[in-house]
Amino acid sequence: MKCERCNGLVMAVSFVGGDDARGAWDYDGLKCLNCGHITDPLLMKNRKLPGQGVAGHQLTPGLVAKLNPRASNAALGSR
């Protein structure tokens, strides 16, 4: 299999961690041996959902102002 980011070799890996108050977690995924990119089942599931991509989200004026105060005036029509 090939990495979706760099076309490098990908191998199956089991990830385990989180031994804290929230409990432990584990999942299986794919990791690129070349660039380290990780793909897991939840990521793949979320990518298949319609309208869930970055392009489908709208920024609210308040969020625009927090992210970049100079850009907020242009986004809001220069009040």
What does this structure look like?
This protein is α+β, with helices and mostly antiparallel strands. The protein has three helices and three strands, in the order βββααα. It has a three-stranded antiparallel β-sheet with strand order 1-2-3. α2 packs antiparallel against α3. The N and C termini lie far apart (53 Å). The mean pLDDT is 74.
Question: What is the fold's blueprint, element by element?
Answer:
Elements: E1 10-17, E2 25-32, E3 38-39, H1 41-48, H2 61-67, H3 69-75
Antiparallel strand pairs: 1-2, 2-3
Key features of this structure:
3 strands, 3 helices, single chain
Q: Give the strand order of the largest sheet, numbering strands 1, 2, ... along the chain.
A: 1-2-3
Structural class based on helices, strands and sheet pairing: alpha+beta
State the order of secondary-structure elements, H for helix, E for strand.
Answer: EEEHHH
Query: What are the low-pLDDT stretches, counting only 5+ consecutive residues below 50?
Result: none
Helix content: 25-40%
The portion of residues forming beta strands comes to: 15-25%
- The shape is flat
Describe the largest sheet.
Answer: 3 strands, antiparallel
- For the secondary structure, the number of strands is 3
Give the termini distance in whole angstroms. Answer: 53 Å
Radius of gyration, taken over Cα atoms and rounded to an integer in Å:
19 Å
Mean pLDDT score: 74
